[in-house]
Amino acid sequence: MIKESKGIKAGERAAKILTFTALTAVALLILVPFYIIVITSFKHNTESMGVVFTWWPQEGFTIEGYRNVLFSDASGGGSLSTILAGFKNTLVIVVPATLLGLFVSAISAYSFAKIPFRIKNKMFSVLLATIMIPGVIMLTPSYLLYDMLGFVDTRFPLMVPGMFGSAACVFFMRQYYFGIPTDLVEAAKIDGLSHIKIFFQIMVPLSSSALIAQGVLGFVGGYNDYFGPLLYLQSPAKYTLQIALKNSVSTYGYDWQTVMSGAVIALIPTTVIYVFAQRFFIEGIATSGLKV
């Protein structure tokens, strides 16, 4: 028995070591590229373009790359640089679409979870089926439709679809609302509250973590979108941040100091959002997936 117990403990110890080793390797695989981006942005131009890579700036730190990205291509009259203009355009597109889309998804999820009506399950099945349709199939019809409406080279093709919510967000919020007792909704009805008041006064406060989590996911998805702006936007003044970053690579070529500085600037908003919303993000995703 003692030998068997020692053998079991040795096996568990070996399994833990292998697990931690695998997790450390995966973490390094993800973190090392970020370190390279950040440290290269602070190197001098000659060192950043050198043949031999250095893990630490040998010539000292510099913020010349950030000055190039933020100010070098800004024209007179106080206009924004290409990166800052792209960041502004991205916020103008993403923030309204995320907020309105989150509202539409949440109130739709409330309807599917708490309001009884005929063909509810069939409608929800059709909604979920849309997730299985590859986006590339709808690419040409969508472009032709927006072109007929005169929306090409405007922000509307990038904003309008998101304003109608997403099937995935509806699914997660519906799962969360199933975990809220229906008796609470019935009691509110007895007190004279309409479904709109129930949604805003009861459901929204109780599901704040899930809403924040879905809002973060929606914002990051729109913020990182590259193909949509590339397809619909033609005027440089309307380019989003991702297009501006791609153009900076073409502009600065192998000036890795400036290119990496632009990448770090693009990382800042999503990093800040994650730091402040981490608790809500983890709680909202976990509970949304577990509520049945």
Query: How would you characterize the largest beta sheet?
Result: none
Question: Superfamily at the CATH H level of the largest domain?
Answer: MetI-like
Structural class of the secondary structure composition? mainly alpha
Anisotropy-based shape:
globular
Please tell me the CATH architecture of the largest domain by its name: Orthogonal Bundle
- Mean pLDDT score, rounded? 83
Radius of gyration: 25 Å
% residues in beta strands: under 5%
CATH topology-level fold name of the largest domain: MetI-like fold
Count up the domains.
Answer: 2
Report low-confidence residues grouped into runs of 5 or more.
Answer: none
Strand element count: 0
The helix/strand order is HHHHHHHHHHHHHH
Task: Give an account of the 3D structure.
It is a single chain. It is built from 14 helices and no strands. It is an all-alpha fold and 292 residues long. The two termini are 44 Å apart. The relative contact order is 0.14.
Question: How would you briefly describe this protein structure?
Answer:
This protein folds into two domains: 1-29; 76-290, MetI-like fold, CATH 1.10.3720.
Record the SSE blueprint.
Blueprint: H1 2-41, H2 45-48, H3 64-72, H4 82-114, H5 120-129, H6 139-148, H7 156-163, H8 167-178, H9 182-190, H10 195-206, H11 208-223, H12 227-232, H13 241-252, H14 256-290
Helix pairs in contact: 1-14, 3-14, 4-7, 4-8, 4-11, 4-13, 8-14, 11-14, 13-14
Q: What are its keywords?
A:
single chain; mainly alpha; about 290 residues; MetI-like fold; globular; about 75% helix; 2 domains
